[in-house]
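Hey, quick one: can you model this chain's 3D structure?
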Amino acid sequence: MTAIIVDDEKHCRDVLGLLIQKHCPTIHLVSSCSDGSGAIEAIEMHHPDIVFLDIEMPGMSGFDMLEACRFTNFEVIFTTAYNEYAIKAIRHNALDYILKPIDKDELVQAVGRMQKTRPEKEATRVDNFIEYLTRQKMGDRIALPTSDGLQILQSEEIWYCESEGGYTRFYLTNGKISLISKTLKEVEDVLEIKGFCRVHHSYLINLRYVQKYVRGDGGEVIMSNGKNIPVSRNKKQEFLNFLEKI
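Sure thing. Here's the predicted structure for all 246 residues.
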C-alpha cells in the first residue's frame, strides 16, 4: 500500500516516516508534504492508498485539504496533538486517528484496521466525511424553537447558554436573550462541535468570546461582554485543555 504524510512540522513528518518504515513494512511512502496545497498535488499525482494527515496546519487545515481534493479514493489516518471537536467528527464517520506523540503500537493498529476495511469500504468513508464537513459548515445556522416559532442564528451570535431547569437561555451578542424548551445537555450536543465548552453544570460558553480565566477552586471565566461565569472543579482541566488550543 502506498502512503503520503501531510504535516507542517518537519520533525513530525520525519518521526512518522521512520516509524512507518520500521514497523509497517507493507506501507510504501511516496511523498511527504508540509502543507495542504502540496498534499493535494501529491495526492493527484500518486493516488495513494493512505494519507496520514495532520489536522491543525497554518493556511489550510487537514479538513480544508480534504474538501479541496478531487481524488478521494484513499483512506485517512489523522494525526493530531489534541482536538476534541475534530476527534468527535472523525469518530462520527468511523475514520481513524492517532494522537501525537505517535506510539508505534497505535500506528500499527491503525494501519491494520485500514488494510482490513479498505477492500470492503474503499473511499466511502472519506467521501462521507467531506459531506459531513460540508453539512457542518452549512449547519452553522442554528434554529431555536421559541414560543412563537423558530429563531435562526449563527453560532457566533451566541455569547453563552445558561440552564434553567428543562429550559436553556441563550445570551446573544445583540443583547437579547432567548429561552428555548431544550435542556443544556441537548444544546451542548449540538454546539460542542461549533466551539462551545461546558464549563459548569449550568453554563455552556462560546470559546471565541473568552477574554480571561481567573484561577480558583474551579475558577471563573470572564467573557468579552464582561460576564463572569463560574468553572466547576470537575470541568476545570477539560476547559483549560480547550484554551490551550485557541
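One thing worth noting: The two ends are 36 Å apart (CA to CA).
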